Every structure is written in C-alpha cells, then in structure tokens.
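FW: tagging you since you asked about this chain on Friday. Here's the raw sequence from the shared folder, copied in full. Didn't touch anything.
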Amino acid sequence: MQDDSLKPSDAEIIGQVIEGNVNAFETLMIRYQDMVLKIVKKRAPIGNLEETAQDVFIRAFQSLPTFKGKGTFSQWVSSIAVKTCYDYWRKTYRSQEVSMSSLTEQHQNWLREAVSNPSEPSLDEKVSQKEGLELLDWALGQMSPEDRMVLELVYLEGRSGKEAANILGWSLANVKIRSFRSRRKLEKLLSGFMKKQGGV
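HL: got it, structure written out here
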C-alpha cells in the first residue's frame, strides 16, 4: 500500500502543470474523476455524462493558471463542474410539452399531493419517492437553466445562498431573489400541470 504522504499534493501537481508538465494534470483527473462524475450525474442527462465530465476537466485545465489557492482544488473543480452543467442546459434548453397521458397513475397521485400541500412535507422530502424524482426532473426541464440550477443548489442540495452565489458567480441578493421566484415558478408549473389533468 502506497503511503499517501508520499503522493504529491494538489498544489505541487498544479505547479508542475503550470511550469509545462501538462501530463501531470492526468493525476488530478484520476484523483477527482469520481467526484466530478457524481456532480455531473445529478445535473446532466445520463447520455451526456462522460462528455460533460470531460468538458469539466478541459475547462479546469484551461483555467488552471487562474486558480489562486484561496479554497481547495476540489472546491474549485466542483464549482467548474456545476457551471459546466449549467452551460449544458443553457445550450440545450428548449421548452418541451409532455403529454399528460404519458404519466403513470403514481406520478399523477404524487402531483396531486405536491400541489395540495405545498408546504408540508418539504419539497426535498416529497421528491425522495422515485415517481417524485422523475416528475421533478420533468418539471425542471421546463424551466430556464438559471432557475433549474438555483433550485437544485438551494432547495434540493441544501446549499447556502452564499455557496450557490459562489458556484454560479451571482450576487447573494440575486440568488435569494432567483431562488424564491424559481420556487414559485415550480409550484405554479406543478399546479398548472394538475389543472390540465383535471385533478385540482
């Protein structure tokens, strides 16, 4: 078993890459590939998982000279991963109508419960059910990339407004306003969905 203390630190590897040893970056990729894949898997379609993860590391490599070491490298890469997913949705965003008849009875029941009791239980507790997760994914797909990302960060992952602001590059005030408005949009979307079905 290799002693971890003998492995080069992230800072040492970054220094090597900046000095011209570009092959050293592969060590960072191997070190953080599982973390990046986990982040991307939660935010991008499974069919685009590997491509999006690759884009994360390309961006990280290109931006490496700007890494100031104020936080950890893992935090920095995590932020790039979230932003890459955000850009993916910006590029591919278009509103898609989904036929109500394509939803199962479980989905319809979940929606009725969600809109009839909007404050209890909490949104994240509701989506713990499989059908809830699938429906929420559909609903998020109808929203703008900005709304989608702030909802995921603040409400589904429980990140603070400050954390979300740092990741998205927004002001804290913008995050607070956007998260409130996007939550309202989501609830309105779900309510409208059920009205079309005649369940509300």
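FW: The longest helix spans residues 172-197.
HL: agreed, and The CA atoms of residues 44 and 88 lie 8 Å apart.
FW: great, closing this out.
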